[in-house]
Amino acid sequence: MQFRPALAAMKPYTPGEQPPPGKFIKLNTNENPFPPPPAVVSAITAAASGPLNRYPDPMATSFRRAAADALGLPGPEWILAGNGSDEILTILVRGFVGEGQSLRLPYPSYILYRTLADIQGASWEQVPFIDNWQLPASFGESREDLRLVLLPNPNSPSGTIVPPQQVSELADSLDCPLVIDEAYVDFAEENCLELVKQNERVLVTRTLSKSYGLAGLRFGFLVAQPHVVAELTKIKDSYNCDMISIAAATAAMHSQDWLAEKVAVLNVTRQRLADELAEMGFDVVPSHANFVWCTHPSGQHKAIYEFLKRSQILVRYMEFPDWGDGLRISVGTDEQIDACLLMIRRFLDQL
Ligand code: PMP
């Protein structure tokens, strides 16, 4: 069988472990530990008795209206809905980066971008963060074949944020579009939506998987100037969001009070998690997301991950070649975090 040559050299993106529900305290893929807003559950029930024999609205208009409203955007034409923000990222890479061209990402960050470049037969350039997760000036340098720059903001795994003013300068210095992947931005104090209005080359992606508690549903979206949305609409799947997801995501956008309340609770727990890890001797990066990145002077990160897993607690052990390793721990409920901290303490006591 003849696959495209690009596939031979490709490494698939491997997401975090997803065991069957119930067995583990799951702190490994930055999901919301709380179930989604009640209005979402009602909307799903209502949609399930709707006309499922019919195709959904290809443009997810009800969702786009609700999202534009919630985010203070001029109208739905500033939004493109997708099957998770991963699909939106796929559309962006497909739309801007072809064979022989390249995209840029910071390192360590979201490795999926590399896979998306590989699929296109394109190349990728990783620019390492410097000085505690700052972007070096070279991240903003233009190059002939560079067609897209992607920046998770807040970044994963660090949870650090590049302030909008600096993002704006970065966008000005680049010739190509700059994607700000705001998957975790609801847990931060600032975002880059205003920049989208000022600069057609700033493209923001968002997801409902994290702050809205809807990872199981698959819904994400792009915020960009209307002519950019119109152009990218040409390459999306015809019916990329299903009727039930559209109804649920629309209800989620109408649940801004729920969102604010849950984010506030999780951010308090995040601070406690960070403080207690620091007390145990961990180096904890100050986080603006719903997870923390930490390293311990013992270097026993993999052993801690394995010990926790044996205790039915899943965190993410991450190893970045030429960089180092560490643990990324998602912010769960207070009880979940207490259980995790207790077992980490127990592990460290044995050393
Ligand atoms: N961007 C970043 C930085 C992420 O960590 C994730 C979650 N793995 C995503 C995008 C994708 O989120 P989703 O496809 O669930 O919307």
Automatic annotation (TrEMBL):
Name the record gives this protein = Histidinol-phosphate aminotransferase
Q: How does it assemble?
A: Homodimer.
- Tell me the Gene3D superfamilies matching this sequence: Aspartate Aminotransferase, domain 1 (3.90.1150.10), Type I PLP-dependent aspartate aminotransferase-like (Major domain) (3.40.640.10)
Concerning its family, UniProt says: Belongs to the class-II pyridoxal-phosphate-dependent aminotransferase family. Histidinol-phosphate aminotransferase subfamily.
Asked if Transferase is a keyword of the record, the answer is yes
Modified sites of kind N6-(pyridoxal phosphate)lysine: 210
Q: Cite the PANTHER family for this sequence.
A: HISTIDINOL-PHOSPHATE AMINOTRANSFERASE, HISTIDINOL-PHOSPHATE AMINOTRANSFERASE-RELATED
| Signal peptide coordinates | none
| Organism for this UniProt entry | Aporhodopirellula aestuarii
Q: What class of enzyme is it?
A: transferase
Cofactor(s) needed: pyridoxal 5'-phosphate
MF terms from GO for this chain are: histidinol-phosphate transaminase activity
Q: Which reaction does it catalyse?
A: L-histidinol phosphate + 2-oxoglutarate = 3-(imidazol-4-yl)-2-oxopropyl phosphate + L-glutamate
Q: Keyword Secreted, does the record have it?
A: no
Looking up HAMAP family in the UniProt record yields:
HisC_aminotrans_2 (MF_01023)
Q: Part of which pathway?
A: Amino-acid biosynthesis; L-histidine biosynthesis; L-histidine from 5-phospho-alpha-D-ribose 1-diphosphate: step 7/9
Domain called Aminotransferase class I/classII large: residue spans: 23-339
Q: Which InterPro entries does the annotation name?
A: Aminotrans_II_pyridoxalP_BS, Aminotransferase_I/II_large, HisP_aminotrans, PyrdxlP-dep_Trfase, PyrdxlP-dep_Trfase_major, PyrdxlP-dep_Trfase_small
Keyword vocabulary terms for this entry: Amino-acid biosynthesis, Aminotransferase, Histidine biosynthesis, Pyridoxal phosphate, Transferase
